[in-house]
Amino acid sequence: MHGKFVWYELMTTDTKAAEAFYKKVVGWSARDAGMPGIDYTLFSIGDHQVAGLMTMPEGALDMNVPPAWLGYVAVDDVDATAAKLSGKGGTVHREPDDIPGVGRFAIVTDPHGAAFALFKGTGEPPPSLDQMAPGNIGWHELMAGDLDSAFAFYSELFGWTKDQAMDMGEMGVYQLFAHNGQAIGGMMTKPKDVPAPYWLYYFNVEALDAAIDRARSEGAQVVVGPMEVPGGAWIVQCTDPQGAFFALVAPKR
Question: How far is CA 69 from the centre of its chain?
Answer without folding.
Answer: 6
